[in-house]
Design goal:
It is a single chain. The protein is mostly beta strands and about 325 residues long. It has one domain. Helix content is about 5%, strand content about 25%. It is built from three helices and 16 strands. A six-stranded mixed beta sheet has the order 4-3-2-1-7-8, with no helix packed on it. It has a six-stranded mixed beta sheet with strand order 9-10-6-5-11-16. A hairpin with a 3-residue loop joins strand 5 and strand 6. The protein binds 2-acetamido-2-deoxy-beta-D-glucopyranose (6 copies). The site of one 2-acetamido-2-deoxy-beta-D-glucopyranose has 7 residues, from loops.
Length: about 325
């Protein structure tokens, strides 16, 4: 049971047709139907609909990806079960991220996952100014995903695939696990129960990219919360960190899980390489001239609704 702001990791069925990569390790490709608010498969060129409840993310490139954010202005922690997809392009029947929302994006390709992280003004996606966000995942308190019916595809392996494990955290960061091996399962590499640790712990990397749009290769990180301890005969052992929290079960009995000592940093920060810079990303749709503001509650980009921790940052987590 996750009462904390949550992460997104998901189970979805492969719906691609011809694929460049056809053999995926167990646990990587999801086997199910799309959520009921979603189109049956990722679709480009769908109509603008800023009241859409579709929850299908595609994570393909620095200028073609989607995020989860609230349908109306409200805290992530209050809306994680019904957040909706917002995409950089018109696709998936989803809402469109207004041009100018994102001030920097880094799209990272590794041998184990793709990851997209970014900075921006997420009040335009209905996230109150100062909200610390949360973590979305395909499991959730009800076992059917945060948000319920949320799904994720990527075409990074050569054709559209629905991936089983993905995660997305504050300010924002999103990982889609595209393979696995005997050392790291997709579930471990997209582990989603460290929702208070933040992007830089869960998805370490170069975060110094605001006001830049880039596509990079990168080393594979250790799975979130994993620390190598020893290597014997070529096999590495790990210690793992579990976030501490207390709760009350449905039987009314209090419980405590996790470690009381929280590590300050991941074991290492993977370095990026071969970065290609794009001047900016844009869908070219003048939403305002169509009478549509980014935030459907009527809030404007310049009108933060609430002040939070006073950090001056907007956080997004899906
Ligand atoms: C979509 O997400 C649901 C969980 O909400 C999951 O059960 C299902 O397998 C996913 N479907 C696809 C095609 O990924
Ligand atoms: C917009 O999305 C909403 C909710 O998903 C749906 O009810 C409505 O029909 C959509 N509008 C159009 C024009 O597709
Ligand atoms: C959002 O969360 C903050 C911090 O938990 C809380 O103080 C605030 O009242 C919440 N705002 C809304 C609109 O729920
Ligand atoms: C992935 O999607 C992008 C559109 O964002 C498209 O340009 C590209 O050709 C697609 N790649 C494959 C292999 O389908
Ligand atoms: C699994 O993949 C990781 C990351 O690519 C790699 O470091 C590790 O050696 C691989 N393990 C095996 C058994 O191939
Ligand atoms: C990113 O840069 C923009 C200016 O383009 C700035 O307003 C914003 O505060 C920066 N974000 C962070 C997290 O530093």
């Amino acid at each position: 049971m996750y009462l904390l702001p949550s992460t997104l990791v998901f189970l979805a069925a492969y719906t691609g047709t011809a694929s460049a990569q056809t053999n995926f390790p167990p646990g990587v490709i999801a086997t199910g139907t799309q959520g009921v608010t979603n189109p049956p498969k990722p679709t480009m060129g769908t109509a603008i609909n800023q009241t859409s409840m579709a929850r299908l993310l595609s994570v393909n490139s620095v200028d073609d990806f989607c995020l989860f954010a609230p349908p109306t202005m409200q805290n992530i922690s209050d809306s994680e079960t019904f957040e909706v997809a917002w995409c950089t392009k018109q696709r998936n029947n989803a809402r469109l991220i207004p041009d100018g929302t994102l001030t920097g994006v880094s799209f990272i390709k590794t041998d184990a996952y793709v990851q997209v992280y970014g900075y921006g003004d997420f009040t335009r996606l209905n996230i109150p100014f100062g909200d610390f966000g949360g973590e979305l995942d395909p499991h959730g308190a009800l076992g059917d995903g945060n948000p319920i019916g949320g799904n994720v595809t990527s075409n990074i392996t050569g054709s559209d695939q629905n991936f089983a494990e993905w995660m997305d955290y504050n300010q924002f960061c999103l990982r889609v696990c595209t393979t696995a091996n005997s050392t790291y399962s997709a579930a471990a590499m997209c582990w989603h129960e460290l929702d208070e640790m933040g992007c830089q712990f869960v998805m370490p990397g170069n975060y110094n990219f605001n006001n830049t749009f880039e596509t990079c290769e990168a080393e594979v990180a250790y799975p979130p919360g994993w620390y190598p301890t020893a290597t014997v005969d070529g096999t590495t052992s790990f210690s793992t960190f579990a976030q501490f929290f207390t709760g009350v079960g449905t039987d009314g009995v209090s419980y405590t899980v996790g470690d009381t000592v929280t590590p300050s940093a991941p074991f290492m920060t993977p370095s990026s390489s071969n970065c290609q810079t794009t001047s900016t990303i844009s869908n070219g749709v003048a939403l305002e001239s169509l009478g549509i503001t980014g935030a459907s509650s009527g809030a404007t980009a310049s009108g933060p609704k609430a002040t939070g921790a006073g950090t001056g940052k907007s956080y997004q987590t899906v």
